[in-house]
Design brief:
The protein is α+β, with helices and mostly antiparallel strands and about 450 residues long. The chain is built from 17 helices and 13 strands.
């Protein structure tokens, strides 16, 4: 066919009677790109397969890491909320007359439960060991609607009372505590009386005696900070230990959804001036910030795996342009435009990117489904646990299947493959036909 200057321009079109031509009449550049994937003497090209495997590995690893880290963050959130309330209202000191405060908080429509709380450090002695855990006052009438701690009981009975404690599993292990073990507690007021001075020199100073409790139960939340630092008793006993008369340290609040915490906190701050309203995210800000930073850093570093794969694909295409120099020269000599030649090699990268991304997505899904078996196999081979339960407190490797992660990573793999093909495609389209035809 004639071009604008009267020169002959080739219209690339496969033979209609060939098996490939019938499906490729409207996409001759794609037909040539698929032909370039196969070398002359074998069915598959080694360098093409290596480029494809690079894209597969990059997509697979990035999806697996993103889904596992998101699952880890979600499981961590679940464990944190399992022991903590969604919101906490507190003041600079003890809050007197908690009844009116509880009534004001429960009037909010998003609030499903509110319970008074006493929480603070105590001096504990058991079996000759001294520790400084936190005692938590449990109001049996309202606390269960805020924090379902009874679900965490692993041994004994849930009966925190006047002379009984329910303790964390890690604290029990560290202090060799079992069901029925005696624990002596000394509260801050008693300690203040012990070290304080009397106003009358002739009056002997009273020596406060620690209060003796028995361990009635042991709980395990899966969070080391909680399991190693908390002792639970009833609210009246905690108030007595802290010498509080009709006062509390704060109010624990549960909402319909944990995601409502920030919005409801703002409403309560306006409604309760002078009081601090903290969300569960405020209490664990450093923990979740560390997890988020770790996920972003790992994703950033693993993104370079796909970048290296893209460079490998670019090198492959450069090799193909050298190997197919005579064919490129022939196409140009018979009228193929530079745009058509560039499209052929760009589609080469598109095909590798599509096939690599699809295989990477499928491989990532299989790896995530069988993640625990793979982790156990690696542990048997190396002799080391990848995620020790005593450290991470997860019975199995957590994961969150996110369609956005699968699609986003696959799209990134395809985009990098196309970008990697642009430079070799441009170089192939700029070569002189006569120089290419002279090559043997």
């Amino acid at each position: 066919m004639k071009g604008p200057a009267g020169q002959t321009v080739l219209r690339l079109e496969p033979r209609g009677d060939s098996p490939h031509g019938r499906g490729m009449k409207s996409w001759p550049e794609l037909f040539l790109a698929l032909r370039f994937l196969r070398p002359h003497r074998s069915f598959l090209s080694v360098i093409t397969v290596l480029s494809w495997l690079g894209v597969v590995a990059g997509v697979l690893v990035l999806i697996v890491v993103q889904c596992v880290m998101r699952g880890f963050e979600e499981e961590l959130t679940r464990k944190v909320i399992g022991f903590q309330s969604h919101l906490t209202v507190a003041g600079q000191g003890p809050l007197p007359e908690p009844g009116r405060l509880l009534e004001a908080i429960r009037s909010e429509p998003e609030v499903t439960g509110a319970s008074p709380a006493v929480l603070g450090p105590v001096l504990a002695e058991t079996r000759g060991r001294i520790s400084t855990p936190r005692i938590k006052g449990w109001d049996s009438t309202t606390a269960e609607s805020v924090v379902p701690l009874k679900e965490c009981l692993m041994e004994g009975a849930w009966s925190p009372g006047a002379d009984q404690l329910v303790v964390g599993s890690e604290w029990a292990t560290a202090n060799r505590v079992q069901i029925g073990t005696e624990v002596n507690l000394l509260g801050p007021q008693q300690f203040r009386d012990l070290v304080g001075k009397t106003n009358s020199p002739g009056v002997p100073k009273k020596i406060p005696l620690p209060r003796t409790f028995r361990v009635a139960g042991i709980f395990k939340t899966g969070m080391y900070d909680y399991d190693s630092d908390y002792l639970v008793t009833d609210l009246a006993t905690a108030q007595d230990v802290y010498a509080l008369t009709n006062s509390i340290h704060g109010v624990a609040i549960r909402l319909q959804q944990s995601s409502q915490a920030a919005a409801v906190a703002e409403k309560l701050r306006a409604k309760l001036p002078g009081l601090r309203v903290l969300t569960w995210m405020d209490h664990n800000q450093r923990l979740f910030a560390a997890v988020a930073v770790e996920r972003r850093v790992m994703s950033f570093l693993l993104f370079f795996v796909m970048a290296v794969a893209a460079l490998g694909l670019s090198g492959t295409l450069i090799t193909v342009t050298v190997q197919r120099a005579r064919l490129i020269g022939t196409l140009a000599a018979i009228g193929a435009t530079p745009g058509q030649i560039a499209t052929v090699f760009t589609l080469y990268g598109v095909v590798i990117g599509v096939l690599g991304s699809l295989a990477g997505v499928a491989g990532a899904w299989l790896a995530l489904v069988n993640r625990n078996g793979i982790a156990n196999l690696i542990a048997r081979i190396t002799g080391q646990e990848l995620f020790p339960p005593e450290i991470y407190h997860f019975a199995s490797l957590p994961v969150k299947y996110d369609a956005g992660v699968f699609l986003g990573v696959a799209a990134a793999g395809l985009a990098l493959s196309v970008l990697a093909a642009l430079v070799p495609a441009w170089a192939a389209s700029r070569t002189e036909p006569a120089a290419n035809l002279k090559r043997s």
